[in-house]
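User: Hi! I'm working on a homework problem where we have to compare a predicted structure to a textbook description. Could you give me the structure for the chain below?
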Amino acid sequence: MSKIKSNTVATKDEPLNADAVASYLRQNPDFFNQYSSLLADIELAHDCGQATSLIERQTQVMRQKIKHNADRMSDILTTARRNDVQFEKTKRLVIELAAAANLNDLTEALKQSFLGEFDADAVHLAIFSGLNVTDTHPCLSSAEHPEENTYNAEIKALASSKWAYCQGFKVTSMSHLFLDHSKLKSSAIVPLYLADQPLGVLIIASNCADHYSDQLDTLFLNHVAAVTGRCLGRIQV
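Assistant: Happy to help. Predicted structure tokens:
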């Protein structure tokens, strides 16, 4: 049994108050072991208004802490499982992108992944170079000459940032790329770069207004952008 510290009690110049008592008991956690008779005089108000013992209150507080820690652990495990699923989906997409031999294959890989595994409703790849006669995928287009029309200039402006971002679906500037979709409300904009050279932009859209919101973590999209930019550069060489 440890001795009770006597140098923490209040002096005449330091009046005794609740904070001083709390500090003293915190420094002497075995105080009630030496003065156990005091426990009989202690009353703690229960949440429902009834008196409860100190041990009951300690048990209640401990249970609350245990529940809080259990909830935190559950959140951590849920996030880990979600990341595992995301990783597997991303790995499958990267494999398909690496295997793409032409722009049609590349566009189809992006379409199948985002529509089939990431709950998007539409995907379009707009590149900033010309297309060959064989590049006929319906989700693929060229914005090579922004001076030819306003649409190309607006699409090319989407890649002014190197990082992916989310925004509401802009009907006036993007609807011509999604002629078969009339209910799109949100979009993820994925600029595609190879080093400092802009190659194109991937637009992923959803019918749900908050599916691609500014609260979405874009780490995954930036990873997709890096891989797609490399594959696009390889195909266009």
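For your comparison, note the following. The first strand starts at residue 44 and ends at 45. The chain has a mean pLDDT of 86. Good luck with the assignment!
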